[in-house]
């Protein structure tokens, strides 16, 4: 489904007004309509796959981004001091959650983790506000396959002196990521499993 640039009817702006149960259902449908594809793909992990989740079709969608923020924010522990993720996939996710947090009177800053240190200025790996030593940061991820991307973000944050013990993802492909996080002593939660997306994809007649 292609995104329409026409003016949206206020009754269709579900991301801003829906309760969280309805919002989760609508976001699942958006993943099925815009992001989930079947074919022959090579993933960033190097693995081949018969399907692909083009997550930015949802996380950069106006209602999708707001829904992501509203649904992930309540999953954060109450002592969370920042959310962070590895660029590029996590950028719109941490931004959405940070923006939503303001409306709940609990502002949480966002951090973006570079894959390589920038070659100018501060040469930093981490972009965003400086936090106190030991600040508790939750890592957010779009789609988890092997789990290596989020683990890289976790390690960069720990090297910077922050405390990280949890990863939250939008989609778990059920291909070893959860087990990797467990072995690293990290809590892990995903909004959707790939099985749930595939089931709904079939129900929608795709």
Task: Characterise this structure.
The structure is a single chain. With 206 residues, the protein is of the alpha/beta class. The chain has a single domain, classed as Rossmann fold, CATH 3.40.50. It has eight helices and eight strands, in the order ααββααβαβββαβαβα. A six-stranded mixed sheet has the order 5-4-3-6-7-8, with helices on both faces. A two-stranded antiparallel sheet has the order 1-2. It starts with 13 loop residues before the first helix and ends with a helix.
Q: Which descriptors would you attach to this protein?
A:
two-stranded antiparallel sheet; Rossmann fold; 206 residues; 8 helices; six-stranded mixed sheet; alpha/beta; 22% strand
Summarize the structure.
With 206 residues, this protein is an alpha/beta fold. Helices cover 37% and strands 22% of the residues.
Q: What is the mean pLDDT? A: 92
User: How many extended strands?
Assistant: 8
The spatial strand order of the largest sheet comes to 5-4-3-6-7-8
Low-pLDDT windows of residues: none
CATH class: Alpha Beta
Principal-axis shape equals globular
Q: Major sheet, described briefly? A: 6 strands, mixed
N-to-C SSE string, H for helix and E for strand:
HHEEHHEHEEEHEHEH
The CATH architecture? 3-Layer(aba) Sandwich
- Gap from first CA to last CA: 11 Å
Structural class: alpha/beta
Helical fraction equals 25-40%
User: Proportion of β residues?
Assistant: 15-25%
The number of helical runs is: 8
The domain tally reads: 1
Q: Please tell me how large the radius of gyration is.
A: 17 Å
Oligomerization category of the chains in this entry: single chain
- CATH-defined fold name: Rossmann fold
Catalytic activity: orotidine 5'-phosphate + diphosphate = orotate + 5-phospho-alpha-D-ribose 1-diphosphate
Binding site for 5-phospho-alpha-D-ribose 1-diphosphate: 114-115, 118, 141-149
Protein name: Orotate phosphoribosyltransferase
Function: Catalyzes the transfer of a ribosyl phosphate group from 5-phosphoribose 1-diphosphate to orotate, leading to the formation of orotidine monophosphate (OMP).
């Amino acid at each position: 489904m292609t995104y329409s640039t026409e003016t949206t009817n206020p009754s269709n702006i579900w991301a801003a007004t829906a309760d969280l149960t309805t919002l989760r259902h609508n976001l699942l449908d958006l993943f099925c309509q815009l992001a989930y594809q079947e074919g022959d793909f090579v993933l960033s992990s190097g693995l081949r796959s018969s399907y692909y989740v083009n997550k930015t079709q949802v996380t950069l969608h106006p209602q999708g981004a707001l829904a992501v923020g509203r649904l992930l924010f309540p999953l954060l522990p109450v002592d969370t001091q920042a959310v962070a993720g590895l660029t590029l996939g996590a950028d719109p996710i941490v931004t959405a959650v940070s923006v939503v947090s303001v409306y709940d009177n609990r502002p949480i800053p966002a951090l973006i983790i570079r894959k390589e240190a920038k070659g100018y200025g501060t040469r930093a790996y981490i972009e965003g506000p400086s936090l106190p030593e030991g600040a508790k940061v939750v890592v957010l991820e779009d789609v988890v396959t092997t789990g290596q991307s989020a683990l890289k973000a976790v390690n960069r944050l720990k090297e910077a002196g922050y405390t990280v013990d949890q990863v939250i993802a939008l989609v778990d492909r059920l291909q070893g990521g959860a087990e990797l996080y467990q072995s690293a002593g990290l809590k892990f939660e995903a909004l959707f499993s790939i099985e749930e997306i595939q089931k709904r994809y079939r129900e929608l007649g795709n």
